[in-house]
Amino acid sequence: GQCVNVCPTGALVERQDWMEVADVIKSGKKKVVAITSPSVRVGLGEEFGMEAGSYVEKQMVAALRSVGVNYVFDTTFAADLTIMEEASELIDRIQNKKPLPQFTSCCPAWIKFVETYYPQLLPNISSSKSPISMFAPTIKTWFAKKEGIAPEDIYIVAITPCTAKKFEITREEFHDAANYHHTQGYRDYDKVVTTKELANWLRAENLDLTSVGESDYDSLMPRGSGAGVIFGNTGGVMEAAVRSAYYFLTNEQPGDDLLKLEAIRGLAGVREASVTIADIPVRVAVVHGTDNARKFIAHMEETKTHYDFVEVMTCPGGCIGGGGQPKHIGEDMQDIRKKRIASLYDKDASMSLRNSHDNPHIKAVYEEFYGTPLSTLAEALLHTTYHERKDLGEDPAVYAKAFEADST
Ligand code: SF4
C-alpha cells in the first residue's frame, strides 16, 4: 500500500523548480514566457520512450501551451542574437588588437571555471552573454513594450539542458532589464527548468509528449536560423560565428565549406581549423569537457600557439550532453550523444535559413531596438563582465561540484 504513490525516479519526492512555475501559472498574476534551448527538443522525447535524438520541437511547444504557459519562444532566436554580437566582437578584437583568442561565453560552467581557476583569461572571454541571458532582457524591454505588458508582470522560464544555467541566472549583475527601466524591482530571469524537470512536470499534469499534438512558437521571435539550432552541440557556436564573421567582413554569404566546417565537427576532445576570412587567417579551436579545457589551456600557454577564437563547452558533446538531459543508465551515452548531435545538424542542413545575420526577425529587433551589434544599448543589455571568484569570497569547491554535476 505505502509504495503506491512513490515515483520510481524519486523525482516527485523533492520540490523541483517547475513547481514554482506551475504555481505562478495557477495564480494567473503574471504572463509566463517559456523559452526553449536547442538541445531540449532532441532530448525530451527520450523521456517518453522515443528514439534518442527524436526531434520533438512542435510537441514540446504544444506541451508547454497545455501546461498553461502564455508565450513560447525559441532560444535559437537568441542564439542568433548572441552570434551577431559575438562575431562582431571577434572582428573588433582582431582589427583593434584586443586580447585574443576570444573564448566563447555561453557555457556558465566554463565561465565559473575560468573565474575560479584561470582568472588570467578573463579578458579573453567574450563579453557577449549567452543566448538565454540575452533573451530575458530583450523580452522584458522590447517585447514587453510591443505587447503592452509591464515588465514586472512577465515571468520568464528558460527550459534548458543545463543545471549550471540555474547559477547563471542568479549572477548578481543580471538586472539589465530593470536597469533599463530605472527600477530594481525584478531580475532578468525568473527560473530555469531542465529537460528532465520538464518531463516530470508533463507527467505530473498527465501529459504525454506522444499524444499532446503539435504547436508553433509565438510569432514575434519565432525561430532562429540553422546556425542557432547547432548551438546545442559542441562546435556549433564556432560554426555559427564563423558564418556571420565571414559575412560581416566580406559582405558575401559563406559557401558550402563554411556551412559545414568538417574539421571542427565530431567528438574528439579538441578540434582545430584554420579559416581565411577576407585574407585574414583565423585559427579556431573547439574544446568540450573540463579535462580537455585544462589540457588545451596548458598547451596554449606552454607552446604560445596563437588562436583567434576558441569554443569551450564543459559537457561531453556540448549542451546535448548537459546535466539536465535524460540519462540512460547502462546504455552507450556516446551513441546517444551522437544521435542528438546528428538530429541538430540534420535540422540545420534542412533549413533554408542557415545564417544568424539572415534571420528577418533578428534584423527587425536590430532595426526597431538595438540599432547595430555592439551599440550602446546592445552593450547595456546583451554584454556583461566577469570577476575573479576568489575576490568575491566564493568557494571553488562549490563550483567544482557544479562542474561535476554537468560533466557526467
Ligand atoms: Fe550547460 Fe553543459 Fe551546455 Fe555548459 S555545456 S551550457 S554546462 S549544458
Automatic annotation (TrEMBL):
Its cofactor is Fe(3+). Keywords: Iron, Iron-sulfur, Metal-binding. GO terms for molecular function: ferredoxin hydrogenase activity; iron ion binding; iron-sulfur cluster binding. The keyword Zinc-finger does not apply. This is Ferredoxin hydrogenase.
